[in-house]
Input
Amino acid sequence: MTDTVPDTDRPGGAPPPDTPLPRRKLVFAVVGLALLMFSLDGTSVAIAITTISGDLGADLAWTGWVITGAAVGQILALPLGGWLSDRFGGRRMFLAGVALFTLTSGLSALSPSIGALIACRLVQGLAGGIMLPAANGVVAHQFGHDRDRALALFTSVFPIGAILGPLVGGLVLTTWSWHGIFLVNVPLGVVLLAFGLALVDDPPHRGAGRVDVVGIGLLVLTLLATMLTITRLGSSGSGTGSGVLLTALAAVVAVLAGVAFVLHSRRRPDPVVPVRLLAGRGLGIMNITNVVFGAVVIGFSATLPLYAQVRYEMAAFVAGALLTGRAIGTIAASGASVALLRRAGFRPLLLVGLGATAAGLVVTAVPPPFGDPATWLFLGSTVLGLGGGLAAPAANNAAMHLVPDQVAAVSGLRTMFRQMGGIAAVSVMTAVITASGDPGRAGGITFAVLAGLMVVAGVFVARVPNQRGRW
Output
């Protein structure tokens, strides 16, 4: 626990340096609303894919890149967002991310072709990837020794967006058009910019320094080649001769670029991503855990409706509604996790959460021993949500308390690893289900495999030293 010196022992009665700042709740509201805007955008756009395809005269394969492009941009920017915040200031990067996201939302609404829309969405993803790590750094600075609880509360923002996004997207699409899904971000973004300029203080940062151009290039090449390999593994054309060659070539490039990046980072005194953030002091275990956690949560959300339809022949609406259980469970358990974090420490909550998440996957994987399949799958979804709600705030703090002076960088890497795990899970699980002669049974096996990976991650997490109280 952080010790504080009484105000009377400081010159002029100045508060301790880790004291929460007066406007922290207003700043949290601004930053939280920005995160909610980003979350809503990601889930509401999915509702309009078929409408966008018809209106712009594009096939669904290309239109799907309206979602994929934003995800790619976000993953590329996330590890750079923390570095940029550390060099140029969290306030500046947060406001730049909001401004760029707002601008590209307006341009997306005005896009005359699918190519222009995909380009705008790629930049939107970049803006979000810059904004998210900076937002964590801003909140950590504002809340001082209470930053653990404030950062843990961020966990509930994205599930709220996951619930509201399809509803907002459907409402706008019904009463207006797909253009409106992007346009609603513009006035909200302008308001956030105005309040951000007035309220947000700049966290301490190092200054610009020399730009690690080589490190950035190697990092981007590693991420692009890795994502291409993952998506090719889940592609229907990857089994052909040319498909296998392309997948193998992408994998080789990813490995070589990754090794070169690590070697470069070890030699350079001030790299874009220090090696110690990837593997040092328990961070390596947490990074691997975040890959598995992202694979479970994102993979489950993306494939549960498909699984329910192919195994139990459920209607699309009922299959999609099953995810409500996960969202509600996550929001409810996140509050309990935040309340217990200081008393129990992150490790017990993380272990219980990972165990509950694995249990939810097992329930989903096996046929219902009683009741109808919809009730049984809703139960599995809710248990998984409860586990995720307990684990996510604890996992956030587990990594960040190890390097409290680099909150933005660690939060960017954490989200990047979760997103990459999610992309891998969605690609592989979808390919397995669609290629199997018994897709329902194949889906159940994939959920069981994810449960096993979660248990293995829990074994390694048990080795990370616990942290109670403030950090």
